[in-house]
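Thread title: Can someone regenerate the structure for this chain?

I was given the following input by a collaborator and told the matching structure tokens would be attached. They weren't. Posting the sequence so someone can regenerate them.
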Amino acid sequence: MLGPVILAASRSDRMRRLISAAPVTRQVVDRFIPGETVDDIVPIVEGLTAQGLELTMDVVGEDITTPEQAAAARDAYLALIDRLRALDLGERVEMSVKLSMFGQSLPGGHDRALANVRPVVEAAAAIGTTVTLDAEDHTTLDSMFAIHEELRKDFPQTGCVIQAYLFRTEADARRLAANGSRVRLVKGAYKEPAEVAYQQKPEIDKAYVRILRTLMDGTGYPMVGSHDPRLISIAQELARRAGRKPDEYEFQMLYGIRGDEHLRLAAEGHRMRVYTAYGTDWYGYFMRRLAEKPANLRFFARSMLTKG
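Best answer:
Regenerated them for you:
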């Protein structure tokens, strides 16, 4: 399996230098990350929303080693929200944040991350939208869920992400579904040990369906993070059985993957949200996209061979 190898490479400085220096890398990266600045991304937001799509915005970057970098990450999201204010798109454009960017791994990281993310959540609420806390590796999740619970006291619309491949997630889903949370369910894109996570795709897919059923039957708002046609079909059936209307759940897919499917779902009346990342620190995000799906890796390898 190449996925674990690619995920290991995502933490390698040597591989970062090699891949970043490849002439073709930038044009391949552009498939998944359509810009580096707020100015780059505003036309993307306008274009996608004009097609009936919704977005969740991610300012990429995770390897934060100083308090100053964590504060800069906070300020980058605040600058994004300030630009979105003029577009007046409300909840059609939300934010996704990784707490590692806000200083979670620094000394006093839990409190630091909460202090840095709260102004972003407040600013998002002020323009009629919200924030979803992305899930990272399993060692960070207790802190993420505690921050999520704290933020929901004042901003109940704050969302979080759960990962189907982790053994703990079925219990997390039951708790979150009962508490009326906004929850994005994904398969998972970090290299996790066999002691805490399923390792084989069939096991992960079965867990995904079990967890999705829990979310659909609960009182929260499920966000179906998948490009898998079979899982999308199952999600529609589970929503129907649970008596959910089209605006009581949504699909989420990555920018640059299955764009025609984005438009098809939106045209059928589903809420379809495109996870759209931008920024200069793209390497870790890009490598996980390659690890998630063999087709992404083939696309990159083919481009390296034919255009490098």
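The first helix runs from residue 2 to 9.
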